[in-house]
Amino acid sequence: MKGYNIIFTFYSTHLALEFERELKSSEINVKITPVPRQISSSCGLSGKINAQDLEKVKAVCSDNEIEYEDIYQFNGKNFKKTSE
Question: N or C: more exposed end of the chain, with fewer CB within 10 A?
Answer without folding.
Answer: C
